[in-house]
C-alpha cells in the first residue's frame, strides 16, 4: 500500500514537470517574435541596404541588439551608432535679423581716419568750439559731439614716423619730434627756455616764463617759504601749465601735480607734457567748475598763467579755494607780482599792475587766506584749516557769501558760483576741517578721513583695507600674465578708467609710472575725494564722451567693470574707439569684466587692429569675471594713406 502511494506521487511530479517544460511550438513562437522585432528595428533605423564593397570606406550602421536568451537586456556597444545624415546644429528660430547683425559685427574692420584727425580731441575740437561764446573763454571748455552723426567711426592715426617715447626719466628732458611735429612753441618761447628742436628730437631745458634759471631752482625758491620736503605736500595743481616743467621737476620731490592748459594758440602744450611722461589734461578756467572734488590739492600754482584772478567777483580764485585742502597753499608768480621790477618788460603801466595786485589781495583776504610771504617774483597765500574765524568775519563782510546748497564735490558741467565752499564743521579752532591727513607716504595706505568719518555712504574702513590688499593681489596677477608689466621703462603713463578708491594706482606706487584715476560720473563718484586724500590724482569722467586729452596719451589702460557699468547707457563701440584714440601704438589694455561682455568686446576689438586674448581670473577658471588682454598694433599714417 505504501509502495503504491509513493509510485503515484512520483507519477504526478513527472506530469507536473512535463507540463512546465516548454514545448517546441512555444520555442518557435518566441524565436519568430524576436526575429520580427529585430527586422522591424533595422527598418526603423534606416531600412535595408546592400553591404558596402570591401575597402569602399562607407560607414556601417550596426543596430544595438537585445538578447532574447537573457532575462535582463544588455547593450552591445562595440561600435557607436552613426546617424544616417549630418546633424544640423544651427538655430532656426532666433530673433529676426540678429544673425545678420552679429555677422556684421564680427566682420567689421575699422578704417584709419584721414590725416587731419591725427591730433583729434572730440570734446575740444577747434572747429566745433568756434560755435560757442568767446566770453570768459567758454568756447575753450568741453563741447562734445552732440549726436552720433558727429562721432568719428574710424581709428585716429599716429603721425608718420611715430616712435615709442623715451623711457622715464630720460623722457622728462627729450621727446621725438615726429611724435608731436610742432615748432610753434620753439619760436614763440625761444627766449624763455621752454623747448627747442635738436635734430629729430625736442629738448626741454626746464625753463619757464618766470623761472629762467630752470624749474628746479624755482621750486627750490618755493621750498624756502613752504615745506616741500617733509611729505605734508603731496598733490599739486598747475593752472596754465605750458609744457608742465613745474610738474615734471616736482616728481623727484615726491609731489604729484595735475597740470592743465587749454587747447589754444600755444599748439600742443599739453601734448608735449604727456609726451614727456608728466601728468596733464586739457582744461580751462571759464564757466564750469574744474573736474575735481572739493579739498583735493595741497598746493595750487600759477606762473604767468594769464588767468584774470581779480575779475568776475574773484570767481576763479574762489574755484581754487574750493579745490584746495584746508591749510593748502596758492602760489602766484608773474604779473602782477614784483611789478616794480618787471613793468617795462610786461609793457604795462605801474598803475595798472598795482591796481591788479591790490584786487587779487582783496579777493584772497575775502576768502580768509593768509599771505605767507612775497619774495622776489613769488607770492604765496595759505587757506585756513577751518572756517570758524572766517564765518565770524563774514557776518561783517558779506561778500562773497558762503554757498548754501551746492554739493561741493559736484564738478561735471557744474557751473562755478561766486560763493565760498564751506569746509566741514569742527568743534575746535585747532582742528583741521574734514580730518588731518598723514604725511606722504603713510597717507597712501592710511584710512582716508572721508571714509573714517563715515561721509561716504556704504563704505567702511574694513572695505577700504580689503580693497587695498585685493589690488595688490590683482596687480601681481597682471604682472604674471603680462611679462613686460614689471619691466622698468616699458610703461609710464597709465589710465584707470574706473578707479574706485585708487587701489590699482596704489599697488603700483613703487614702479616708475603714474596713474590717472578716473571716476565715472554714473557710478559712486564720491570716491574721487578718497583718491586725493591718499595722495593720488584723477578726474571725473563720463565714458559716453571723449576724454580731455590728446591722442596717444597712455601706454596702458585699465578698465575694471567699465562695460558692465555702461551697459545700456551708450554704445560699446564708442568707448572702445575712444580707448584706441588715447592709447599709444603698441600700448596695452587690460579689461576686467564678465566673460559674456568680454566676448562681445573682443568681437569689436578684433576689427580695431588690436591683438587680444581672454585669460582667467586670478582666482581660477570657475570665476565668471575674466581678463581681456590687448596689445594695439603699430601703424602710422605712412602705412595707411588717406
From TrEMBL:
GO terms for biological process: methylation. It is found in: Endoplasmic reticulum membrane; Membrane. It comes from the Eukaryota. One of its GO terms (molecular function) is methyltransferase activity. Its EC number is 2.1.1.-. Gene3D superfamilies: Vaccinia Virus protein VP39. It is a single-pass type II membrane protein. Keywords: Glycoprotein, Membrane, Methyltransferase, Signal-anchor, Transferase, Transmembrane, Transmembrane helix. One of its GO terms (cellular component) is endoplasmic reticulum membrane. SUPFAM superfamilies: S-adenosyl-L-methionine-dependent methyltransferases. PANTHER family: METHYLTRANSFERASE, SAM-DEPENDENT METHYLTRANSFERASE. Belongs to the methyltransferase superfamily. This is Methyltransferase. It comes from Urochloa decumbens.
Amino acid at each position: 500500500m505504501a509502495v503504491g502511494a509513493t509510485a503515484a506521487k512520483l507519477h504526478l511530479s513527472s506530469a507536473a514537470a512535463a507540463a512546465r517544460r516548454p514545448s517546441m511550438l512555444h520555442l518557435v513562437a518566441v524565436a519568430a517574435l524576436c526575429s520580427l522585432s529585430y527586422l522591424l528595428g533595422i527598418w526603423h533605423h534606416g531600412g535595408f541596404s546592400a553591404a558596402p564593397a570591401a575597402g569602399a570606406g562607407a560607414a556601417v550602421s550596426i543596430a544595438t541588439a537585445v538578447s532574447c536568451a537573457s532575462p535582463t537586456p544588455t547593450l552591445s556597444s562595440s561600435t557607436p551608432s552613426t546617424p544616417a545624415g549630418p546633424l544640423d546644429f544651427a538655430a532656426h528660430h532666433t530673433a529676426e535679423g540678429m544673425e545678420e547683425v552679429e555677422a556684421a559685427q564680427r566682420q567689421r574692420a575699422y578704417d584709419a581716419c584721414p590725416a587731419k584727425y591725427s591730433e583729434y580731441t572730440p570734446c575740444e575740437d577747434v572747429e566745433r568750439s568756434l560755435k560757442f561764446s568767446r566770453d570768459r573763454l567758454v568756447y575753450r571748455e568741453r563741447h562734445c559731439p552732440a549726436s552720433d552723426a558727429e562721432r568719428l567711426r574710424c581709428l585716429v592715426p599716429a603721425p608718420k614716423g611715430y616712435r615709442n617715447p623715451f623711457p622715464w626719466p630720460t623722457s622728462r628732458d627729450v621727446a621725438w619730434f615726429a611724435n608731436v611735429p610742432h615748432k610753434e612753441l620753439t619760436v614763440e618761447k625761444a627766449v624763455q627756455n621752454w623747448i627747442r628742436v635738436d635734430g629729430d628730437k625736442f629738448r626741454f631745458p626746464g625753463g619757464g616764463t618766470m623761472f629762467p634759471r630752470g624749474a628746479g631752482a624755482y621750486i627750490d625758491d618755493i621750498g624756502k617759504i613752504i615745506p616741500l620736503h617733509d611729505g605734508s605736500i603731496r598733490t599739486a595743481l598747475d593752472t596754465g601749465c605750458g609744457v608742465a616743467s613745474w610738474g615734471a621737476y616736482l616728481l623727484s620731490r615726491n609731489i604729484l601735480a595735475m597740470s592743465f592748459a587749454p587747447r589754444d594758440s600755444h599748439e600742443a602744450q599739453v601734448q608735449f607734457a604727456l609726451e614727456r611722461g608728466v601728468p596733464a589734461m586739457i582744461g580751462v578756467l571759464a564757466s564750469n567748475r574744474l573736474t575735481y572734488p572739493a579739498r583735493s590739492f595741497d598746493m595750487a600754482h600759477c606762473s604767468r598763467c594769464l588767468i584774470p584772478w581779480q575779475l568776475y567777483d574773484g570767481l576763479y580764485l574762489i574755484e581754487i579755494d574750493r579745490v584746495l585742502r584746508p591749510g593748502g597753499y596758492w602760489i602766484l608768480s608773474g604779473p602782477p607780482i614784483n611789478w616794480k621790477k618787471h613793468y617795462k618788460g610786461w609793457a604795462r603801466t605801474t598803475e595798472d599792475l598795482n591796481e591788479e595786485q591790490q584786487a587779487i589781495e582783496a579777493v584772497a583776504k575775502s576768502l580768509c587766506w593768509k599771505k605767507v610771504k612775497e619774495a622776489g617774483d613769488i607770492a604765496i597765500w595759505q587757506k585756513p584749516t577751518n572756517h570758524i574765524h572766517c564765518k565770524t568775519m563774514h557776518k561783517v563782510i558779506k561778500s562773497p557769501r558762503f554757498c548754501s546748497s551746492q554739493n561741493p564735490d559736484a564738478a561735471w558741467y557744474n557751473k562755478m558760483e561766486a560763493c565760498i565752499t564751506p569746509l566741514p564743521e569742527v568743534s575746535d579752532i585747532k582742528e583741521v576741517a574734514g580730518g588731518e591727513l598723514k604725511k606722504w607716504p603713510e597717507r597712501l595706505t592710511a584710512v582716508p578721513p572721508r571714509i573714517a568719518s563715515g561721509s561716504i555712504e556704504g563704505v567702511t574702513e574694513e572695505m577700504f583695507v580689503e580693497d587695498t590688499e585685493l589690488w595688490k593681489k590683482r596687480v601681481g596677477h597682471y604682472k604674471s600674465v603680462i611679462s613686460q608689466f614689471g619691466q622698468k621703462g616699458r610703461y609710464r603713463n597709465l589710465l584707470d578708467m574706473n578707479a574706485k578708491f585708487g587701489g590699482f594706482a596704489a599697488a603700483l606706487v613703487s614702479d616708475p609710472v603714474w596713474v590717472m584715476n578716473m571716476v565715472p560720473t554714473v557710478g559712486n563718484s564720491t570716491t574721487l575725494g578718497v583718491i586725493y586724500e591718499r595722495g593720488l590724482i584723477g578726474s571725473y569722467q563720463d565714458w559716453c564722451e571723449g576724454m580731455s586729452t590728446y591722442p596717444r596719451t597712455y601706454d596702458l589702460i585699465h578698465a575694471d567693470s567699465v562695460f558692465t557699468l555702461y551697459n545700456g547707457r551708450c554704445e560699446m563701440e564708442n568707448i572702445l574707439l575712444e580707448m584706441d584714440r588715447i592709447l599709444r601704438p603698441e600700448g596695452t589694455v587690460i579689461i576686467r569684466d564678465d566673460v559674456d561682455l568680454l566676448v562681445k568686446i573682443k568681437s569689436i576689438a578684433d576689427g580695431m587692429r588690436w591683438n587680444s586674448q581672454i585669460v582667467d581670473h586670478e582666482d581660477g577658471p570657475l570665476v565668471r569675471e575674466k581678463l581681456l588682454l590687448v596689445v594695439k598694433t603699430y601703424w602710422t599714417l605712412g602705412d595707411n594713406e588717406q
